[in-house]
Amino acid sequence: MPRSEFQHELDKVEALIQDEARLCRSSLTTVMDALLRRDDEQARLVIASDRGIDSIHIRIESAIESLLARQSPVAVDLRLVISMIHLNLHLERIGDQCVNIAKLSLLAGPSSLHAELALDLQVMASQADEMIQVAMRAFGARDLPSAESLVEMDQVINKTNYGLARNIVTSVGDAEVGLFVIVIGRCLERVGDNAVDIGERTAYLVSGELREFTDASQDFALE
């Protein structure tokens, strides 16, 4: 395959990954609106629309497989292909977390969430959405400092999730609702974690060094 054609194919795959990220962000926004407004129809729409994310996920896998079959990329091109494989996986997982939240919203029943819990979830979802945006922009621009900034951004989600557990104890009389909220908080935390993972793959693409931004064995500071 001529170099120009190979680069064109790489660009097309990268554009698909950006499209996948935009669908994930849309699903996150929609599912949180459905959860907070107790809108079952909208929650079901998120579940159904996950087929769009899965479809792009498969298209990206197939395109990368085809590229590797026709070309043996080296150096930075190989890092880009490896990074795109991982980004595709992380974005598909974000889509799955949105589906999980939609299903939990349907199971939680029609009652409105306590105001403090709703606010905590809104904060986490808003930060997760911004993290996806920053992660994908950093990947597109090969911007290492922006990718590394995701660690600090993720602390907002982690700390809010910790506070969420405390608020459940003080503001929820229904243990079942409290359990749903805990699991939804965990879903949002995983969205943030996947955004950080995308940042780590951007760092690998830029530097050639595969590393974790933080040591998972160390606890984050709680206030």
Task: Describe the model.
With 223 residues, the protein is mostly helical. The chain has a single domain, classed as Methane Monooxygenase Hydroxylase, Chain G, domain 1, CATH 1.20.58. It has seven helices and no strands.
Quote the distance from N terminus to C terminus: 56 Å
Number of domains: 1
CATH homolog superfamily: Phosphate transport system protein phou homolog 2, domain 2
CATH topology: Methane Monooxygenase Hydroxylase, Chain G, domain 1
What is the string of SSEs from the N terminus onward?
Answer: HHHHHHH
What class would the helix/strand composition place it in? mainly alpha
Helix content: over 70%
Gyration radius (Cα, Å) is 19 Å
Question: What characterizes the major β-sheet?
Answer: none
Q: Outline, from the CA principal axes?
A: elongated
- Which assembly state applies to the chains in this document? single chain
Give me a quick take on this structure:
The protein is an all-alpha fold and 223 residues long. The protein has one domain (3-207): Methane Monooxygenase Hydroxylase, Chain G, domain 1, CATH 1.20.58. The chain has seven helices and no strands.
List the helices and strands and how they pair.
Blueprint: H1 3-37, H2 40-70, H3 75-107, H4 115-141, H5 144-148, H6 150-171, H7 175-207
Helix pairs in contact: 1-2, 1-3, 1-4, 2-3, 3-7, 4-6, 4-7, 6-7
Task: Provide keyphrases for this structure.
mainly alpha; 223 residues; Methane Monooxygenase Hydroxylase, Chain G, domain 1
